[in-house]
Amino acid sequence: MELIPQVVQAVAGQNYSVYVYFHDGTVRLLDASPLVQKGGVFAPLQDADFFRDRLTVLNDTVAWDVDGNRDPCTCIDLDPCQLYKACPIVEDPLRDAN
User: Fold this and answer.
1) 94 within a domain of the structure (yes/no)
2) Positive or negative CA dihedral for 77, 27, 83, 34?
3) Whole-Å CA distances, 12 to 3, 5, 43, 54
4) What SS3 string covers 25-94?
5) Of 34, 33, 74, 39, which Cα lies nearest the Cα of 56?
6) DSSP annotation of 23
7) β-bridge mates for residue 64, sequence order
8) What is the domain extent for residue 37?
9) C-alpha angle 70-61-52 in degrees, rounded to nearest 5
10) CATH code at 49?
């Protein structure tokens, strides 16, 4: 039985990208621009400030805190299994940040 991967940190990158830190120590890079372009439930993410400022971890995955109350029921969140499978592993961009 496989465990569901858990996201422990999410950091916004440039051009609607997200560095996703998983519990196993891997860092994966999400290109969220296709989601943003879809609109619908993802429409609030088209505002770059909203995308960056509301990015967080809720429900053990990448999420955006829509109403600012950290309510896991009203956030926009992504499937952690899909993120783990689809996003490539990358170097930690924060490792050398001083």
Assistant:
1) no
2) positive
3) 26, 19, 17, 10
4) CCEEEEECHHHHHHCHHHHHHHCHHHHHHCEEEECCEEEECCCCCCCCCCCEECCHHHHHHHCCECCCCC
5) 74
6) T
7) 55, 76
8) 7-86
9) 65
10) 3.30.2020.10
Within-domain flag for 80: yes
- How far the first Cα of the chain sits from its last, in Å, is 40
Cβ neighbours, 10 Å, residue 32: 20
pLDDT tens, position by position, for the chain (98 residues)? 578 999 999 999 999 999 999 999 999 999 999 999 999 999 999 999 999 999 999 999 999 999 999 999 999 999 999 999 999 999 999 887 66
> Which pLDDT belongs to residue 1?
52
